[in-house]
Amino acid sequence: MGSSVFLLPCVLFLLSVFQIITPSSGRSCLHHQSSALLHFKHSFSINKSVSWYSTYPKVESWKPDTDCCYSDGVTCDIANGHVIGLDLSDSWLYGPIHSNTSLFHLHHLQRLSLAFNNFSYSPIPSGFHLLTNLTHLNLSYSRFSGQIPLEISGLTKLVSLDLSTYFRNRLKLEKPSLGTLVQRLTNLRELHLDYVNISAVVPDFLSDFSSMTTLHLSSCQLYGRFPINIFLLPNLQSLRLSGNPNLTVYLPEYHSNNSLRFLDLSTTSISGVLLDSISKLKLLNSLILRGCNFSGSIPSSIGKLTQLTTLDLSDNNFSGQIPSSIGKLTQLISLDLANNQLSGQIPSSVANLTHLKRFSLWNNQLIGPIPSYVTELSNLIVLWLDGNSLSGTIPRSISKLMNLESLFLSSNNFSGTVGLNLFLKLKNLTELFLSYNSFSLITTVHINSTLPKFDSLGLSSCNIREFPEFLRNQKGLSYLDLSNNKIHGQIPKWMWNVGKETMYHINFSHNFLQGLEEPPAILPYDILRNLDLHSNQLQGPLPIPPNSTTFFSAANNILSGEISLLICKASSLEILDLSNNNLSGLIPQCLGDFSNSISVVKLRRNRFHGTIPHKFSNGSLLRTLDINDNQLEGRVPRSLINCKRLEVLDLGNNQLNDTFPFWLESQPELQVLVLRLNNFHGPIGCPRTDCTFSKLHIVDISYNEFTGDLPSTYFLHWSAMMMSGENKSQFKYMGDTYYQDSVTMVIKGVEIVYEKILTIFSTIDFSNNRFQGEIPESIGNLSSLRALNFSSNSFTGCIPSSLGNLTKIESLDLSQNKLSGKIPQQLTSLTFLAVLNLSRNHLMGPIPRGQQFDTFLSTSYEGNSRLCGLPLVKKCAYTDAVQQPTFLFHQDQDLEATSEEFDWKILLMGYGCGMYIHESEIYSLTKALALAQAEQEKEYLKDLLLALLEMEHKEAPADMSTTQALDNAREIHEIKGSITAIFESLKSLTMAQASNHPILQLGPSSVEQPTRSSPNPQPTDDPDFGQYE
């Protein structure tokens, strides 16, 4: 009885409290608000696929006859019935929000969340200024787009604003800018704008927001210098600036009273060393500095951050050993030091990290075995040690990690024999990567063993000798790599049921597989993206990939027969490589445009005949078309002009019959053009332009029937070959991460297959055509050329001295042309030149000496009978090339005589003094030589005359032996004989031109003109001499 007396007041008190906090005790939802909510509900459709989580559509509980204050997601003020809170996050809402939405009738709203819905990339409506009481606004990850409206800046009561989005550039903050948006929002404590395109400098006044606790500006394209005082805001607890590579960040000297708990500066511009003052952030539980270009060692003071649960220093340049102090971070759940230059062994202090679930050290320089204390970390879910130099055997104790789901040990030096049974106890294991080690993997398992249900298996280069039988029951497999093993036989038919609904990647390349057992017409995988069968011994018809496939390679096999037209159903294909097989028949016409996404078609080295597919659709994404070494005929399809992304066009080694495809100059990305060994013909000029192949850097049009001159401006706009400066950032291969382009070229006289093409590799091969005329001087502008081959044409004139500008060139072949004159001295500056071939021309004079020219053999010059000097046996009449005296080129000479006449007059007078020509003939011969067209003979004669003058006027040394004197006399005699032969030939030319040039009949005295019959000339040893007469 007494206790009841005491209980009664308590019961009455509780009843009174219940009356106060129950909505029924206050006012119910106002009618106009209920109507506004229902109208808002009906403006959307409900779509379950919108949800990322296990949620439900809250608005489905909203009914016309129900008090809205009881509805899911609605909060009311019990005093007056006003709706003050609306949380519709992740409620499956689908469709746009319009500016006249009834949502803006809820004027008393204080908290609004529409996060994680799908508003169809509609703009954020402009009526938010009507909700003046808002303190919390969350529109994040709901697929809005466009400019953030200025009206939001008027919500001056906002404490929390979250406009984060999924995709960069969908939402923009330009007008207003970041500064304009937040300048009036002085009450802000939380600002989330992740992935909003801000593209601006962070305003300094943000460092005055002393109440700020959270600032998240990840991937906003920020630039400039981040205000350092923001780091020191007294209440700041969470700062995320990741994904802004142009944002310069300087870490401050922290104070010990800092409130920061979360810091993510990944992929910003920091660099330098990590300062010790970071250790003063005693409350920090997450430190993420991934990809910040830090260098030096990881400071041992990092061990003072004892509250850390996440530490990510990956993708930097940290070096040295992992500090042992890291073992003091006993609360760590995730430790990521991957992709640095850390060395030494894994420290023993790691044994203290008993809460660790994620441990990532991949791609460092760590050595030694896997320590036993690592296998004692029983909470590990992820262990990534791949890409190091770890050695020894994989410890059996690894099977103790019962919670392990992901194990990466690839690309180390593990050895011995490893049985798959080692991993049988790891029942949660879904990812296992053991590729590229030195051990042999035994895939046979115990009969009654229950294997984990794998999702991903990387077993490349594991010395596997038979197709793994354990795969038969892996129905949920999505990634399988068995490449680079020693597997023989056929791919078993049960493989078509492995991961039938889940498999997206299969790589069986580089084995000894001979075929597919009972292959279906189309391989039956639902979502397969990558299928790699290349470099095996597959025979029979080509297997057809499923429609979902984007990458398919069956190259380097023995496949035969025609390509089934079922290939036309593979509408998702991006890369198709069937090169190096025995496939025959016609190329299916659908390969030109059967896929909107096809970027690579590679069919080289097969036996296809017929024509190239003629239809390439407008807007095609084709990047590479390689059909080299087949039996194709006809013309180059003009529809290729629709392929504006075309980079590689290799049509070599076929039977194509067409003119030069000059219209390809309009392809803005074309970098490689190979037309080698076809029946192309005609000139290669461009009718209305200078052939502006601006990105072309590999050209091979050899072994065709091209004719005509090369215009002097031909190479002026080949700008990709003009970039002489190189840095590491330019050393990139053509292709993508999984596929690289290749090309076959003849370099230095050897056919070389380049399996990858460096974007800076430049070469030109115009050999074995019928080009004529002079080689344009503009070729010297292509300063990044590595190889140039103009051999086996009919080029005339001199070798351009501008070739001396090709400072990167390694191979130069101008052989088998009709080039004349001297070898330019400028070529001796080509210090990378390894192969030079100037043979079979009409070159004359001494071979230059010095630099690489001292290394070339006589075969580089053979067939040029007028060349002399080393390495040829034939000696020059004088030791070095004699330069013409400067007095021969006075600019103030008699205007009645040309410079050339003046030169010849002086030379002939000097020669006449030696009693080889009568003085009376000098005037007429001077005119004859100045007007004669035999430029090669005149140049050669001038050299001989200068050499003779020097030798006859040079005083013999006192100690000259009789043998040396006889040698000199013999050389003088040979020179005089050559001069006489050329001179008599030119005298005959003079008479032939006398009637057309009366000036030749005048002289200082009346003399008889030379007759056509000349005295017996001295014989010449030049077999080509006759063609110049």
Question: How are the SSEs ordered, and which strands pair?
Answer:
Blueprint lengths: L1 H20 L9 H12 L2 E2 L27 E3 L6 E5 L5 E2 L16 E3 L22 E3 L7 E2 L12 E3 L8 E2 L5 H5 L7 E3 L21 E3 L7 E2 L12 E3 L6 E2 L13 E3 L21 E3 L6 E2 L13 E3 L4 E5 L12 E3 L4 E4 L13 E3 L4 E4 L13 E3 L4 E4 L13 E3 L4 E2 L2 E3 L11 E3 L6 E3 L13 E3 L20 E3 L6 E4 L13 E3 L4 E5 L13 E3 L6 E2 L10 E3 L4 E4 L13 E3 L4 E5 L13 E3 L4 E5 L12 E3 L4 E3 L14 E3 L21 E3 L6 E2 L15 E3 L4 E5 L33 E5 L2 E5 L8 E3 L4 E5 L12 E3 L4 E5 L12 E3 L4 E4 L13 E3 L4 E5 L19 E3 L30 H14 L9 H10 L3 H19 L8 H32 L36
Parallel strand pairs: 3-5, 5-6, 6-8, 7-9, 8-10, 10-11, 11-13, 12-14, 13-15, 15-16, 16-18, 17-19, 18-20, 19-21, 20-22, 21-23, 22-24, 23-25, 24-26, 25-27, 26-29, 28-30, 29-31, 31-32, 32-34, 33-35, 34-36, 36-38, 37-39, 38-40, 39-41, 40-42, 41-43, 42-44, 43-45, 44-46, 46-47, 47-49, 48-50, 49-53, ...
Antiparallel strand pairs: 1-4, 2-3, 51-52
Organism: Tetracentron sinense
Subcellular location: Cell membrane
InterPro entries: Leu-rich_rpt, Leu-rich_rpt_typical-subtyp, LRR_dom_sf, LRR_N_plant-typ, LRR_R13L4/SHOC2-like, RLP23-like
